[in-house]
Specification:
CATH architecture of one domain: Roll
Distance between the termini: 94 Å
CATH topology of one domain: SH3 type barrels
Number of strands: 7
Largest sheet: 4 strands, antiparallel
CATH class of one domain: Mainly Beta
Radius of gyration: 42 Å
Order of helices and strands: HHHHEEEEEEE
Strand content: 15-25%
Length: 160
């Protein structure tokens, strides 16, 4: 039984090798493309060329698609510049309203302005470190700047 199996595997292997040689030597079906009706290959080369108008040439050259003058494009390509990170924006200050003095011209005592140590007394319309006081009402102050609007309320330390 092993001899019959060996013989059948040998015959099958020979058929496989013969088929591979046949396909490698010449394709089974020949493929031909039909001749193109638009372009006749028997026509002379000069007859198939068309002239390009001077205004078309001027438009192409004015756009300079391949930089014929061999000048570099501006800005110059720099792969390292693409990889570098932009600097993070400065952190927003933590402002706190200590107290409000109401009256004819209200004032507020605010802590946390950037570049200012301690408390600062401000009035309506004052600008400190780029932050402008927009409104002062009873127990509340509105400050704008750095693309942010703060609405501060008087802190009450006894309420945690």
């Amino acid at each position: 039984m092993t001899a019959d199996l060996r013989l059948s595997l040998l015959v099958l292997g020979l058929f496989g090798v013969a088929a591979s040689v046949r396909i490698a030597a010449r394709p089974i079906a020949s493929v031909r493309l039909p001749p193109s009706p638009v372009y006749d290959s028997s026509a002379p080369l000069a007859a198939s060329r068309t002239r390009i108008g001077s205004e078309s040439v001027a438009a192409i050259v004015s756009r300079d698609p391949f930089r014929i003058a061999r000048r570099p494009v501006l800005p110059a390509y720099d792969p390292l510049r693409l990889a570098e990170q932009l600097a993070p924006p400065p952190p927003r200050p933590t402002l706190s309203l200590v107290g409000v003095v109401n009256g004819a011209s209200p004032s507020a005592i605010i802590e946390g302005f950037p570049g200012v140590d301690g408390f600062r007394v401000v009035r309506l319309g004052d600008t400190v470190a780029g932050l402008q006081v927009k409104a002062i009402t009873n127990g509340r102050v509105v400050i704008t700047g750095m693309d942010t609007t703060w609405v501060l309320r008087v802190r009450e330390p006894w309420k945690n």
